[in-house]
Amino acid sequence: MKINKDLVDAIMMLSFIILVLVGTTDFSNMLIKEITMGGLALLSIAMIVLRIIGMRQEASSSHGEYEY
Fold first, then answer.
1. What is the average pLDDT score of the chain?
2. Domain annotation covers residue 12
3. Cα 68 from Cα 61, distance rounded (Å)
4. Angle at CA 52, nearest 5°, toward 50 and 55?
5. Which of 1, 9, 25, 39 has a CA-to-CA distance to 53 between 20 and 30 Å?
């Protein structure tokens, strides 16, 4: 399966930005804030993992290209 690097990067950046914005905003219900921040943190971690997997796939596929 090919991982789209641009999509993963865009989602990762957006999740980081929204995580900071939610973290600095005052909420009347702290449980909602913590659940939202937890979900965004999981999304960020998932995108980082996909980015690492994509980099490894790219490295292994380009390594085989140059062998004769």
1. 87
2. yes
3. 14
4. 110
5. 39
